[in-house]
Amino acid sequence: MKNRKIVCFLLVLILLVAAVLATGCAKIGGDGVVYELNYNKDKKRVFAKVVDYKGNGEHVTIAKRYCGFPVTSISRSAFYKNENIRSVTIPETVVYIAEDAFGFCTKLTSVTIPKSVESIDYLAFVGCHHLVEIVNYSQYANIAIPDTVIAFYNRQPFYGTKLTNDNDYIIYNDGEDKILVGYFGEDKEIIVPSYVTKINAAAFYQCKDIKSVVLPSGLKSIGARAFQYCESLQSIVIPQSATMGADVFYGSSNLNIYCEASSQPDNWDVFWNGVLNDSRPTYWAGEWHYDTNGNPVPNN
Which domains does the chain have, with CATH numbers? Predict the structure, then answer.
């Protein structure tokens, strides 16, 4: 029996090597996706899986087959902490997406889950702070939905994204509302487009180089952690029309906040400015003014 198992293992190994040699396929695909062949002992067949990504593209398409075998899974941490990808096309051969497969892909905004997927690890999309749109065609997979997600299409027909790119501002078009869901530019002085009505959770997450932000006067809301870890941000004026989520400026340690309201509105989250040991200096109407250069400054 033992010798039989060894022979079976050797045959599988020969099959895997022969498949690679026969097709002449490279381990890394043309778009930078890295694949591996494996043998499923229970189903007694060879399959391929995604194990890494070495490319620089913003839009990644995973192949249906590698070396002639179907790509059936995306391995743990395959795209972990990738700072480039904004969308991923997953083929209808994939049945499993592992833990941290897309963990902390902070520019990933939209994902479509094909109907073939049977299981998604709970942490597959952990830390995807700009993920706002999930299209799920799977009848089996339960998806942990990040709080940044605006639209979740669960096993419903879906034709195209509602996301647009306007000079590095990623905008989600939701009826009359234009929701800023991410900024991926390099400007240090930010002027949010005047048509934006809402700023989504974590929209400016870890934009470490921005120094100031000008918000539109009719802004309706600013989501939780919208400016989290903006370490160089020095000033921002909050329009009187806007509501505030929780921990909007968490980790933005150099910031002064100037509010058009005379006191904290009742519809702001009680922890909008963090807790006492992490809150930013805040100036209400009557406590600040614009200097001759148009910059907000505290009154003397």
Answer: 2-154 (3.80.10.10), 162-300 (3.80.10)
